[in-house]
Amino acid sequence: MAWATSSSTPQEKHEVFLSFRGEDTRYTFTGHLHATLTRLQIKTYIDYNLQRGDEISSSLLRAIEDAKLSVVVFSKNYGNSKWCLDELVKILECKRTKGQIILPIFYDIDPSHVRNQTGSYAEAFVKHERLFKGNLDKVQKWRAALREAANYSGWDCSVNRMESEVVEKIAKDVLEKLNRVYVGDLDQQIAKLEQLAQLQYQFFQTIPTIQNCQNHQATVERINELKMERSVRMLRLSPDMLSHLGNSSTKNSFGFSSSFDM
């Protein structure tokens, strides 16, 4: 399910709020990140409203307040947007008052440009100070918000790495920070094997051979292994915690060779 929103569509309960500059990353990095978070069953609020007014909407403020974690995608033109900067101020307020987690991401921008408002951010603030020359307190709040947010531990995506790899790592970092475990991959395997087991059982009833019985039993055993692996993952049990189980084959059946590493 795609957990998306617009100004006219009510948003279901979400865990993550995405703050980003649409013209920079909507159809690239942020779009890919949102898709990955959705695949990992992380309910995420993303604003698809392309027409924005001068002031941040009350519904968007509520969306920020309701989130447990805000992902802030800093890009070259993030500082140009009054809307994005107001979002950031609200996100930091929620961190102070509600303990919200902030995860900054620096996409195609040096973190120092955000922290110190240099480069494209310096150009943006020349315009802001000219536009808000009668209300420089607002501009100073934006500057302070950028400095504070840029000092939190986050992800620098300007390094030479595959974007798909970075997006996957960030999504799993979000999952960990939310104290969540993903078991969707196991649920899919279990569901398919349960269907196979049902067909095998029907086939065995039609042709009751030893081979058909063994095929069905092997599938049932694999289902039980995956269900145990799911339970181990949900409980966050480490190999050390299950070391008393003994041989490696037993450990493997408990999920330590899982393709989804947390």
TrEMBL record:
<dbReference type="InterPro" id="IPR000157">
    <property type="entry name" value="TIR_dom"/>
</dbReference>
<feature type="domain" description="TIR">
    <location>
        <begin position="12"/>
        <end position="178"/>
    </location>
</feature>
<protein>
    <recommendedName>
        <fullName>TIR domain-containing protein</fullName>
    </recommendedName>
</protein>
<dbReference type="Pfam" id="PF01582">
    <property type="entry name" value="TIR"/>
</dbReference>
<keyword id="KW-0520">NAD</keyword>
<dbReference type="GO" id="GO:0007165">
    <property type="term" value="P:signal transduction"/>
</dbReference>
<dbReference type="InterPro" id="IPR035897">
    <property type="entry name" value="Toll_tir_struct_dom_sf"/>
</dbReference>
